[in-house]
Amino acid sequence: MFTSSFWRFYLKDYSRLVSIALKTPEWFRGRRYPALAPREDMLHLGEADYRREYRRILDLLDPRRVYEELGSESILLCWEGAGQFCHRRLVAEWLEEHLGVVIPELPHHYNPDQLSLFD
Fold first, then answer.
1. Strand partners, 78
2. Mapping DSSP to helix (H, G, I), strand (E, B) and coil, where does residue 91 land?
3. H-assigned helices in 26-70
4. Helix (H) or strand (E) holding 4
5. Which of 85, 102, 110, 92 is nearest to 3 (CA)?
């Protein structure tokens, strides 16, 4: 599992892509997982308040079930660019904390058409 931004996959149709955003771009063709979307009233909060409110959302969910429903090969997407504060990284931290998995941000050189390191 990885995290990334919608913009890395503009008009792409890969089965691994999962939107966890409140609002998904019209052009997005992947799956959606609304249980991980923030509430609209959270979008204008400062980072500390946002973290607290988003943690309340996560506390209502079972991390094992979420991970299994998403699938270990999923790429969780929201709007913010790499390195910016975003809820996809909060989801990654939450799953890492509870399940002992590692969920990095997708590397900038990722090529979904490359099947292995040796292609």
1. 5
2. helix
3. 47-59, 63-70
4. strand 2-5
5. 92
Give the tens place of pLDDT for each residue, 88-116.
999 999 999 999 999 998 866 665 555 55
Q: Name every residue whose Cβ is closer than 8 Å to that of residue 48 and which is 6 or more positions away in sequence.
A: none
For residue 80, what pLDDT is reported?
81
Residue 81 has phi, psi (to 5 degrees) of: -75, 165
Residue 74 reports pLDDT greater than 80: yes
Q: What does the block give as tokens for 82?
A: 């790499």
**What's the gap between Cα 91 and its chain centre?**
7
Q: Which of 95, 82, 96 is nearest to 5 (CA)?
A: 82
Looking up tokens 């892509």 gives 17
Domain boundaries in the chain?
A: 2-99
Which pTM was predicted?
Answer: 0.84
Residues constituting the chain: 119
Q: State how far the Cα of 111 lies from the Cα of 113, in Å rounded to an integer.
A: 5
Closest CA to 6 of 78, 70, 76: 78
Question: What is the reported pLDDT for 31?
Answer: 92
Whole-number pLDDT of residue 15: 79
